[in-house]
Fold these 4 entries.
Entry 1:
Amino acid sequence: MRILPLAVAATLSLSTFAGQALAYQAGDVYVRGEFEKSDLASAKFSRESGFAIAGGYLITDMLGVELGIGEKLEHDFQLDAGDAGSLDRMPVNLLLQYYPLGGIEDARVQPFVGVGVNYTRFSGVSTAGLSVDNDYGFAGQVGMDLVITDNLSATSFARYTEVDATFESGGETVEKVRLDPLTVGAGITYRF
């Protein structure tokens, strides 16, 4: 959990830098390709890294909505009851993003903070007789865009999501594993 305070400090300190770039404005649309690495709260699941894509729309100069989806990641797991195997986890995040420097013409660094909901789809459980329920939970994100050109930015972020993996067998709960991934990532953003 030491990554989140560092990400917040870096975002706030870098937001003081300025350069020549177009302001973030209402009506802007963007797409982002990113690489993510998650640290899970439980040691019962293997840690995996992967790619994700996100798209967003600025409702006002300072407020936008973003939808992101990660690639399906295969995790190995080991439960207390002795069950072991692998499964696939695919996260989807819908976030309301706040850009405190949105609308400022010369802001080369654009920090952002987002809150919303996470949907995690579990599939492909390799252990016979076991299934895992899909899960909804809170999602929070901090990050920044470093403007390279009028349309291109380098992006970094840290995101926390509440995710539980509820294992079932024959309709009965076998074990509930709290994953709560803290995800850090970086990517390239293109604004239209």
Entry 2:
Amino acid sequence: MGQSKLLVSIVAGAAVGAALSMLDHATREKTIASTKKMKEAISYYAANREELQVLVEEKVLAAKVLCESVSDNVNTIAEKVDEFKDLPTTIQGMIEDTKSAFTLPHKE
């Protein structure tokens, strides 16, 4: 059995697609501008590694805060779901109490 040509076909298709998209002038200009900007950023952070480290630490801290916030929100939602699970029982009890209050004979 021969090797699967799926990966080769995917890579070839991506290369052909990229080449065809470069025929459009606007796409080509945007790609060149993005590549230049990325090159400048890489050069800048290669020369200023401390700044890159601070930037990465800030992003990690922001991600950690976001994760904690999501975790708190999930816990709050779970608590509310538990409260709603008990709600039908509470409502059933209130209905039975109301029903019994109206069906009991009143003594005067």
Entry 3:
Amino acid sequence: MIFSDVIFKQLPEPQALQVSKISGLLNIETAFYDSLNFACKAADKRPKFLIHYLEDPHQQAYLISADILTTGKHLVFCPNLNIECETLLISNGFHGALTLNASEVEIIEALKSVNNNKLYFSNDAMSRYIQSKKRQPNTQRQIELLSLTTKKEQRVLTLVCQGLTNDEIAANLEISVNTVKMHIQNMFKKTKISSRGQLSYAFAQA
């Protein structure tokens, strides 16, 4: 038994079949996150729409690497979804969340929204996330982190904090996707931060 087998489980078959059917009808190419063979999927350079199943986001969200979350769109299914879970998922860079018993209509809305570069979370979770950011004053830590980055990295960082993907950032700044990835990796190394969500959280008020 490999550690990742214990931590991550696949979306239950009934829901997986339903998502596959709906995404096919919507002509949206989705893949189910699999911690064991994701390296094979990562070799494919096409934009990705990954479906995650997290039984406990508080324990598992941080374990998904930044390299994965910076590629494509990410929709999460959770057995017990609440505002705290949603807020955590937003801060970690996911694009939407659904309960395990989500209706067909909800799945369609979520897939369409995320595919169209919109977040799919409850209004309460989005409000709480925005309000928590406004309440946080600049800290010495944030100032120190900002001082470590270059002007070009800060331009990329601003768009990361807005929830844009690497492809969208590249188009916005008229640079290559590889250059975007290089800037983000440089910021990870300089700041000792290991995920895109944590990077956004650390710099949100800087």
Entry 4:
Amino acid sequence: MPRIELRDVTDEDRDAAFPLLQDGSPTWRRAAFAERSAFDAWIDEQLTDDAVMLQAVVVDGDPRGLSAVLPVDDDREIVFALLPGTDAAVTGEVVRQLTAREATRPLYACVSVEDDPAHDVLAGIGFVESERDDDEIVYVLPPTLE
């Protein structure tokens, strides 16, 4: 397994991530950007928001995308956008790291109906389908009994 790290976002990470969010990512349904300046402004806003945990995904030293835990309405939601061709095991480890760093439960994830790999990764970590419409599925990682 490669070395997978979630770290603070650098300029190099922004360069790698912008093409992923330029047209929207099926696993990052909350934001899509037509212009780099809008993307950079959004990143800057997220980095100054104490309620947001935005991090770069780095695999064996190379930036591969972004991950975040964001407030959505009164809930907490994970999102991730990774370069095409990223191995499912890497994606799974990114989601595991996110869920380990975020104590709030229930924790949500919203992905495109068509994003089969993301559905498999979320289910493998314990997320269960909560809602569905024509375009997206909302998953929830429920609280555990102690």
